[in-house]
Amino acid sequence: MERLFDPLSQRQTVRLTVRTYTPAFSSLWILCVMLFICSTQSAQAEGSGRIVKWKDEKGVTHYGDSIPTQYINRENSLINRQGITVKHNKPVESASNQEELAKIEYAKSEQAKKDKALLGAFTNANEIDLALERNIQLDKIALENLQQERANHQKSLDTKKAIAASLEKKKKSVPTELKTEIAKEESLIEGIDHKIAGRNDAIEATRQRFGDDKKRYLLLKSQAGKTP
């Protein structure tokens, strides 16, 4: 709308200008609207067309629009309309599983430290055998002393038992003091046997420990040799 001044009539007049859209412009506008609607519907269809895949406690695979509550923390996958996995969700670890994983990681860390110390302590497997002999040497000496001590007490016990048997054979009573000494010798021998068993266990444990170290050492060396 425009306001015009007519000098002849000394009046203002109003002229209305009507603009019309050309057919080409109108078609383009309609096309844009249709494309927008189609793209929106396509996106909505694609989103609603996704399905979820999961497994139950028996390992059976299931498909659906959503995961049941009891399986939310299980491993699952999101699949689109074309059957392509667009997202894979790993299972949520429980507190007990996390604690177990932490223990495993700690054990690995400790083993790595032991391996490093083992490789640093020996240059070859023969050195491990020599170290074993050095470590059990004291136990061997102690064992020999115990065995000798036992033999002495056994000899004393045999002598006292022989005296008691001789008296009984002669229909004589065995003195109480002799009976006490026999019981004492038997008790001492029993205690020595217990100590001997302990020394033997200690020697066997040391042999086992160094044997395991030797196997581990050879394994680490072989793995190092295969490393490019």
Structure write-up:
With 228 residues, the chain is α+β, with helices and mostly antiparallel strands. 65% of the residues lie in helices and 12% in strands. It contains 4 helices and 6 strands. The protein has helices at 23-48, 95-121, 125-169, 176-226, and strands at 2-6, 11-15, 51-55, 61-64, 76-79, 85-89.
Brief descriptors of the model:
228 residues; alpha+beta; four-stranded antiparallel sheet; 6 strands; elongated
How many DSSP helices?
4
Class of secondary structure makeup: alpha+beta
Main sheet, how many strands, which sense, barrel? 4 strands, antiparallel
| Average pLDDT for all residues | 81
Total DSSP E strands: 6
Radius of gyration computed on alpha carbons = 48 Å
Strand arrangement across the biggest beta sheet: 4-3-5-6
Low-confidence stretches: 38-47
Distance between the termini: 88 Å
Report strand %.
5-15%
| H and E order | EEHEEEEHHH
In helices, the fraction of residues equals 55-70%
Shape: elongated
